Amino acid sequence: MQIHVVEEGDTVDGVAQAYGVPVEILILDNQLVYPYKLAIGQALYIPTYDSAGERPLAQVSGYAYPYISPWVLGQTLPFLTELPIFSYGFTAEGWLIWPASEESWMIDMCSAQGVIPFLTLTPLDDQGKFDNGRIASVVQNPAAGERLIQELISVLRQKGYGGVDIDFEYIRLEDRDAFTEFVRRAADALHENSFRISVALAPKTSADQRGLLYEGKDYPALGALADSVLLMTYEWGYKYGPNMAVAPIHNVEQVVLYALTEIPAAKIRLGIPNYGYDWPLPFVKGVTAANTIGNVEAVQIAIAHYARIQYDETAQSPHFRYWQEDVEHEVWFEDVRSLAAKFSLVKKYGLQGMGYWQIMRWWRANWLALEDAFLIQKD
Question: Domain residues for 42?
Fold first, then answer.
């Protein structure tokens, strides 16, 4: 792809003329907002109209909730191979809990676009938090686990899903082997019924990494059982954490390097965040909470506050600061430069592809850049 980083004095008309691109295309592809002001340091996607050159195949997934805009979903599906729909839950006894909103319309749209819909299974409680007690109650009880697996297969058939994505987080160390055994039984049953299985993996950098987020995930065992795994390579910068890049590339690569020692590259998908964070400063642990924003929205905030966008070469991530009502803010987000760095990792290590959390916000430049870098591997 071509990328133009805005300098002082640049205008939309001037940039379009410099690259020989119709101004309306530059505006459309970068989702620029009238009167089309630019932020210094903003990265603009420049279409090349050149399909020549070798592009590796990639499989691409993107999580979505049933309340996604039908327009956004329709725009995004051509760039996906799978759509994990978030999410189904379950009781301690293994009974499946259906999502609050009907999702059949999403499955129908997937069918029309040649995209495989996946049922995402999570142990979320009534407050939307991951409940590791609920995980233990099912994986440590073979009868409850079997009930849940049979419930899943029934819904997959009824709804027209193509597989299950298992997203269990904060698994306790004492439940690790039981969780792996549950995935084994689920994979056997799903494969016997011609369904697929994927597993979301916390971003580990070593087999013995300490911490509740990591200890319950057995990379080699889960990688052997699943058809694909998603490395959740985001949330270094997070809502209640210190202001920093959401997915710093050097940290992301450390996770990939460890994963490759345990799991074949052809099964690994790199997690990519479709969001950023806006922190009020100074950061105070246990007090400060960032606001989740979209990547297009981040640029509009910079423009509104005349902020200069900086680019951290180590993290390969854009960021800026601004003042509002006597409070200083710091924003970290993703742009086409940080995307290019992540796409390069996928190519460098021959990974299966990538998975987005999440696709609720339309980000046109991302999908065009992805299409420039890869051929989407539809079944």
Answer: 1-53
